[in-house]
Amino acid sequence: QVQLVESGGGLVQAGGSLRLSCAASGRIFSSYDVGWFRQAPGKEREFVAAIGWNGGSTDYADSVKGRFTISRDNAKLTVYLQMSSLKPNDTAVYYCAAGRRARNDYAYWGQGTQVTVSS
């Protein structure tokens, strides 16, 4: 079993930065791919970024490429999402999830952290 806890959300002005963290329990976390997803009010949940189990590969939604960076520290069982040049339409609840990226099968999800970007 893997439990995930997100942190680092908050209120920031447009153009600002935030770093989200996804802390896991369970050493098996190190063998899973991890994705970040977000859901804005009234919208479907959408993919933001993903990283392979060993950090060797990453993937980003077009809307965040060049602004967001995903990374992981398996020794700390933590995945990060560095967000820069934030825009009001980045406002959403951000979730991390662990699973198998190739199958789009994320079995474990965190509770989410709110990110609000003011204009």
Overall pLDDT, averaged? 96
Form type: globular
Q: Residue ranges: pLDDT <50 for 5 or more in a row?
A: none
Percent in strands = over 45%
Biggest pleated-sheet summary: 7 strands, mixed
The whole-angstrom Rg is 13 Å
**Strand and helix order:** EEEEEEEEEEE
- Summed up, the helix count is 0
Topology, number of strands:
11
Please supply descriptive tags for the structure shown above.
mainly beta; 4-stranded antiparallel β-sheet; 11 strands; 55% strand; globular
Give a description of the structure:
By secondary structure, the chain is mostly beta strands. 0% of the residues lie in helices and 55% in strands. It contains no helices and eleven strands. The protein has strands spanning 3-7, 10-13, 18-25, 33-39, 46-51, 58-60, 68-73, 78-83, 92-100, 105-109, 113-118. Strands 2, 4, 5, 6, 9, 10 and 11 form a seven-stranded mixed beta sheet that branches. It has a four-stranded antiparallel beta sheet with strand order 1-3-8-7, with no helix packed on it.
Can I get a quick summary?
With 119 residues, the protein is an all-beta fold. 0% of the residues lie in helices and 55% in strands.
Helix-strand layout with pairing:
Layout: E1 3-7, E2 10-13, E3 18-25, E4 33-39, E5 46-51, E6 58-60, E7 68-73, E8 78-83, E9 92-100, E10 105-109, E11 113-118
Parallel strand pairs: 2-11
Antiparallel strand pairs: 1-3, 3-8, 4-5, 4-9, 5-6, 7-8, 9-10, 9-11
